């Protein structure tokens, strides 16, 4: 059977009309409510419904758990904990000892493992900072607390959720469905693990709830999230006095030259006041605690259910 014949046959089977134009009568009508029609709900015509669902379902759950304020952590999904990075490196070194002449692939993996171990400091610092912030927040009155929130995946996201969970606090993960597999990390609180299809809805919930943002070294996704937030603050589309911490001076000054941007004239010197660059967990904690205490504790100016 040709493709054209198959198409005509399928069209005839699905069309409400016979090929002669007369209405097709179904003996047993298949009644499906519109909101149960998966074919429609997953179609382009229903995109606005799916977008609205990623607003209303998240809002409903957050309201149910009385979550009003978050501290959002951004950063690379590729960083490992020190223990995991060290274990991986030791396994590769053991493999190397069995090979008098290691091949190119093993040498490459060893180099990456050494790099992973060096980068593990960021994972441990994010974990420690999230722990301290969660501990401090839990000493506040219940309706004044700040909840640590991440993108829900591995790396810095996992470290933030892990630190908050170790402090005994609730912690949020806002994951995203991707072509390659990304699973929610195991430290997100039950019922506070979200999965988004649309990046812009995920970003909306990051920013709408956030009273502070901590940005660790990362790649394209981290840059996208950081610079969109800085743009929103610069243009005053976001007016709340968010505290933005950029963590890891050595990394950030190598990959972004903010002072050169001022020198060239593409941003103003005042724009550098939109964020703080820090190198130590204790420094980051003090800046965040003081800012949140001064601007938000005891106030409810930017959130209304």
Structure description:
The structure is a single chain. With 305 residues, the protein is α/β, with parallel strands linked by helices. It has a domain of 192 residues: Rossmann fold, CATH 3.40.50.450. Helices cover 50% and strands 11% of the residues. α8 links the parallel β5 and β6. The protein is globular, with a radius of gyration of 25 Å. It starts with a helix and ends in a 10-residue tail after the last helix.
Radius of gyration: 25 Å
Q: What's the mean pLDDT score? A: 90
Query: CATH fold name of the domain at 69-84 and 120-295, please?
Result: Rossmann fold
Number of helices: 11
Q: Count all strands and give the number.
A: 7
**Architecture (CATH level 2) name of the domain at 69-84 and 120-295:** 3-Layer(aba) Sandwich
Q: What composes the largest sheet?
A: 7 strands, parallel
What is the percentage of strand-forming residues?
5-15%
């Amino acid at each position: 059977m040709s493709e054209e014949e198959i198409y005509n046959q399928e069209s005839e089977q699905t069309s409400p009309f016979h090929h002669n134009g007369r209405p097709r009568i179904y003996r047993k009508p298949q009644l499906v409510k519109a909101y149960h029609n998966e074919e429609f709900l997953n179609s382009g015509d229903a995109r606005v419904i799916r977008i609205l669902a990623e607003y209303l379902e998240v809002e409903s759950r957050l309201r149910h758990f009385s979550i009003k304020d978050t501290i959002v952590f951004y950063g690379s999904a590729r960083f490992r904990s020190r223990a995991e990075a060290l274990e991986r490196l030791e396994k590769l070194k053991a493999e190397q000892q069995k090979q008098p002449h290691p091949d190119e692939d093993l040498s490459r993996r060893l180099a990456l493992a050494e790099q992973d171990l060096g980068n593990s400091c960021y994972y441990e610092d994010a974990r420690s900072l999230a722990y301290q912030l969660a501990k401090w927040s839990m000493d506040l009155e219940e309706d004044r607390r700040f909840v640590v929130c991440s993108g829900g995946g591995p790396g810095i996201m996992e470290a933030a959720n892990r630190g908050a969970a170790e402090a005994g606090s609730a912690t949020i993960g806002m994951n995203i469905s991707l072509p390659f597999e990304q699973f929610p990390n195991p430290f997100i609180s039950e019922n506070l693990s979200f999965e988004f299809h649309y990046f812009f809805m995920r970003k909306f919930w990051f920013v709408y709830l956030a009273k502070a943002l901590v940005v660790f070294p990362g790649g394209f996704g981290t840059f996208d999230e950081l610079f969109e937030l800085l743009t929103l603050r610069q243009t005053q589309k976001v007016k709340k006095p968010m505290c933005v911490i950029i963590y890891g001076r050595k990394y950030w000054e190598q990959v972004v030259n903010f002072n050169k941007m001022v020198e060239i004239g593409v941003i103003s010197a005042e724009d550098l006041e939109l964020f703080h660059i820090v190198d130590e967990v204790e420094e980051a904690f003090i800046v965040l605690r003081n800012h949140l205490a001064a601007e938000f504790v005891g106030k409810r100016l930017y959130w209304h259910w």
